[in-house]
Amino acid sequence: MKKYSVRRLTTILVQVIGLFMFSYIGDWISLLLKLPIPGSIVGLLLLFICLYFKIVPEKYIKDGAGFILVILPLFFIPATVGIIQFPNLLSGQGAILIGIVMVSTFMTLIVSGYSSQIVEKKMMERVKQTNE
To answer: Which residues contact 27 (CB under 8 A, 6 or more apart)?
Structure first.
């Protein structure tokens, strides 16, 4: 396990609080404007806009976001354990549902992989053109 200094832990804590603030601001905007979009998505879009226009530099959230990504699988444990309450999901219909979820997950992975490769190639071409 990684050892963290007090300063690094404080930095991560402040950055995680900042990320949660975007979520809460998104909730507030969603409620205020009565949007049909969840507030967390509005907050995510707000964070994206702030990062894109460099209102919030990446370094201000990088460590906190990395920490959240490391502990992200822990958030799925309650949902997975909750499936035990629904034994019909493990029957024939459940198998079909699980198959559909697996196929859609793999399709998402494939499309995301190809998309990122295309974007990377275009970025490399742009770098080559600027260096010439």
So the answer is: 39, 40, 42, 43
Q: How many other CB atoms are there within 10 angstroms of residue 96's CB atom? A: 10
Q: How far apart are CA 12 and CA 65, in angstroms?
A: 8
Q: Please give the DSSP secondary-structure letter assigned to residue 59.
A: G
Query: With b meaning 16 or more CB within 10 Å and e meaning fewer, what string describes 57-91?
Result: eeebbebbbebbeeeeeeeeeeeeeeeeeeeeeee
Distance CA 68, CA 15 (A): 10
Tens of pLDDT, residue by residue over 17-71, are 999 999 999 999 999 999 999 999 999 999 999 999 999 999 999 999 999 988 8
Question: Residues 3, 20: contact at Cβ < 8 Å?
Answer: no
**Hey, how many other C-beta atoms are within 10 angstroms of the C-beta on 54?**
8
Q: What is the rounded CA–CA span in Å between residue 87 and residue 78?
A: 16
- For helices 6-33 and 39-52, angle between their N-to-C axes, nearest 10 degrees: 120
CA distance to 51, 58, 115, 123, per residue, from 120 (Å): 19, 19, 9, 5
